[in-house]
Every structure is written in structure tokens, then in C-alpha cells.
Amino acid sequence: MALFLSTILNKMDAKCRVSVPSAFRNSLQKQTFKGVIAFPSYQNNSIDACGIDRMENISDSLDNNNEYSKEEFDLISLYFGEAEQLPFDKEGRIILPKNLIKHASIAKEVLFVGLGPTFQMWNPDNYSKKKIETIKIANKKNLSPRLKPIPKGI
Q1: Burial (CB count within 10 angstroms: exposed 0-12, middle 13-18, buried 19+), residue 154
Q2: Residue 154's pLDDT is what?
Q3: Is-cis flag, bond preceding 149, omega within 30?
Q4: Residue 38's beta-bridge partner residues?
Q5: Is the dihedral of CA 81, 25, 119, 96 positive or negative?
Q6: Helix intervals (H) in the chain
């Protein structure tokens, strides 16, 4: 499974091409589809993205798991229905579709944000606002990242 770490800013050209960060590309090159699966985020003004292996795992879980609620199944159906396969060109770029650019309010720069098994593409200004909001909430609620369950001895 691919792993996406870090936050990287790249320019988008007039043809809506943007270079996927090399570390992200390296994770995705080992997969059967050499590119990015992208779809509108339903929680943020951003683009959610992953490798084909993640979409295959979700698809397999639909066939092998009857524990999804109707609402969860409907949401997963939206992901598949709105997903775009964006292949890499020779320079490691993808072409962002107009509908995704509009959804994320992207203009000239794309901020790639690693989320572990997935990543997001943001308008840098929108991400900055989201980051400030998230930190405020975390501080107010005294939250910090942790492993679940907390390992014994910690």
C-alpha cells in the first residue's frame, strides 16, 4: 500500500497539468495503474486522491463485507462514481479535470498534503485556513495524535 507524507506546493500550468511530488509518484509507480485516482472531497474544499490499490481494496470490501450501512454504501458509491483516473505523463504530471479544479478552487498552485494511505490537493490559501482551524480545535480539546489502542507501557 502506498504511503503519502509531507506537504508540497507545485504550480499548475495553463493546460491544467501539475507535477505530482516525486515521493508520491514513487509510491504510486508500483501499482497496476500508473497515476492518481482523484475525486472531490465531501468534507473539505479539496480533492481527495489515492492509488488504484486503495480503490481495489474498497471494492473488495464491498463484496466481502455486509456491515456497511446504507449511508456508508451511498457515500462509497459517490466516490466510485466521481473518481477520475489521472495517468502520469512522461514528466510525472497529471492533468486535473476542470470539475475538480472548480471544486477545490485551485488557480495556479496545488498544495499536495499527505494523509498516510491517501493524499489531498488543495488551494494553498484554503489549506492554510483549514490548518489554523484544525490546530485551534485540537488545542481547545487538548488533542494530540496517538496510536489506537495505546501500546502497553506508555
Answers
A1: exposed
A2: 47
A3: yes
A4: 49, 84
A5: negative
A6: 22-29, 52-64, 70-82, 98-104, 124-140
